Sequence to fold (372 residues):
Amino acid sequence: MAAAVWWWNLRAARRSPYAVRMKRLLKATNVGGVIDPGDLVAVKLHFGEHGTTAHIQPLELIPVIDFVRKAGGAPFLTDTNTLYVGQRGESVSHALQAARHGFDPNLLGAPVIIADGLKSGNERAVPMDGRHIKTAYLAGDIVDADLLVTVSHFKGHELAGFGGALKNLAMGCATRRGKMHQHGGLGPEVHPEHCTGCGACVAVCAAGALALDATSHRITLNRGACVGCAACFLVCRHRALVVDWRTDISAFLERMAEYAAAVLRSRPRPTLHLSFVRAVTPGCDCLGYSDAPICPDIGVFASWDPVALDQTCLDRVNAAPPLYPSALPEGLAPGEDKFHALHPGVRGEHLLAYAEGLGLGSRDYVLREIAS
Ligand code: SF4
Ligand code: SF4
Fold:
């Protein structure tokens, strides 16, 4: 059955500025009907890596937070710590980065809570009957929240093709171990040539999989002992232990879909998903910069169905005229797959097809435009 996707284009007028339109969009979804008084509502977004500018902006969230509050909920803004070492690899730097990007509770009326704890140890093991995933490792505070609303910036992604609601659920709600699990690597990529022999990673490896070679004093990994917890990436400041991005992309997308399913199945109530299709950059908001957009700004979309929502956003981006100068190859016509042109090794639609097969939603959708 076709799923409803509500949206508004970005044209505005004095009588319908941004906040009014966002309120209309949220009212149309009837999200107020699922919020009970006192509910702790996790608003899951990406605060943007240091140097990024295209991520969801604090001011864009104010109407969402106000709407949740007026419906009786207590919203908090949340994300999880990253696998790679950047400004968001542990909660202290992560919360500081959110503050530097303006996510201030005094301004927004909602605090920032990093959902997987200080060093990603706030974790829940959630059973999942997937082809790849039998146990999903999810952020404790997202599992514990009474209600979840995802807010995604729809854009390209180097490994997934594009990033939207499903990726925000799958990677975004997983602990560092869960992220590594999805990447399929059971251990880090090791570069002993960069190792200084400081021993910091050996000290954090609870599995005893890391050791310094007695002769070279450089790092060695016992892959058989590694449990893929990802703790070592965080402490190595010399890029001797990094994420192993070389992985089977189809299997990676399937693992992501299974993680998204685990998140949604762990929730007693439905989850609303919002996607902002504006500043559609070729790469994700983790990169530390925002490249020129690949198409004109399109609008804000909402659905209870993350598959339908991602399919809608993908179709709208691909149907739009390509924007130049950008990272897109010259001569692309409207209708051609922009993300595949950017990331030729990836067909992100496999994620949608696999997620649909898992019963996460429908690729058929009905667009309902919010009146201006
Ligand atoms: S933390 Fe990095 S530099 Fe230090 S021993 Fe481990 S791999 Fe080598
Ligand atoms: S991923 Fe975890 S278990 Fe594996 S080497 Fe790193 S710290 Fe040790």
In short: The first strand starts at residue 3 and ends at 9. Residues 29 and 325 are 37 Å apart (CA to CA).
